[in-house]
Design brief:
Radius of gyration: 19 Å
Number of helices: 9
Strand order of the largest sheet: 1-8-3-6
Distance between the termini: 43 Å
Length: about 230
């Protein structure tokens, strides 16, 4: 099923690349898509393989690893809920430049590039709509880069933790979804800088003990961020 309330449609709608598209167009894209569950550590695609599909993260985290000349693996970046990856290389029929691995248990939307190209050829309006959505997606990426430059490390960490609180009010307790190295990479900082930020945020009611997080007052922490924005 690919109706407006199905998991595939909901996941497509959560991605900034598709969020501006109307449901009839999303439904056409969903026809060539499917949900996939992968356990932590599972390979999603391998560096050098022909890119026949791209993905939306519906739940969980994915990491991209690239093989170095000395045989070691370098962490390039991570992707979390609502983010797309490998779309550019898949749509032009290239090869994956890195290996994608499930950093946690993940649910993905697998989008066949050829199926999407067929839909675009049959209904050119989809291509125009995706072009507009891509422009919007790029604007969001520019804003994210500006945010990385303008926000302090502590502010980036606080905003990340508030996102994990999922809009709770009052006190919030949760577990970090991935290890701190991946979180530091996501936030554009060294792991040591992340640890120091966690320590400084104790003054604002944030307690981090291993992977366990407690925010004493979500609204108060959010208000502090907004006052400094």
């Amino acid at each position: 099923m690919t109706g407006p309330d199905t998991p595939v449609m909901a996941a497509l709608r959560s991605a900034s690349l598709f969020s501006g598209l109307p449901d009839p167009i999303l439904a056409r894209i969903a026809v060539g898509s499917r949900l996939e569950d992968r356990r932590a550590g599972a390979q999603i695609f391998e560096q050098g393989a022909l890119a026949k599909a791209f993905f939306v993260v519906a739940e969980g985290w994915v990491k991209l690893m690239r093989a170095r000349p000395d045989g070691r693996q370098a962490l390039l970046t991570t992707f979390a809920r609502g983010e797309t990856f490998a779309e550019a290389v898949a749509m032009v029929g290239g090869r994956y430049p890195a290996t994608a691995i499930a950093a946690t248990s993940v649910t993905l939307v697998h989008i066949e590039a050829e199926a999407l190209r067929r839909e675009i050829r049959a209904t050119p309006e989809i291509g125009f709509a995706m072009f507009a959505a891509t422009a919007q997606h790029l604007n969001q990426l520019v804003r994210q880069i500006e945010q990385l430059k303008l926000q302090s490390g502590d502010e980036r960490v606080a905003e990340f933790l508030l996102g994990l609180a999922h809009g709770e009010v009052g006190e919030a307790e949760f577990t970090l979804p991935v290890d701190k190295r991946l979180i530091a990479d996501k936030l554009g900082m060294a792991q040591e800088t992340l640890s120091r930020a966690f320590a400084r945020l104790r003054a604002f009611g944030v307690e981090v003990d291993g992977a366990s997080v407690r925010i004493r007052d979500v609204a108060s922490l959010q208000a502090r961020l907004e006052r400094r924005a």
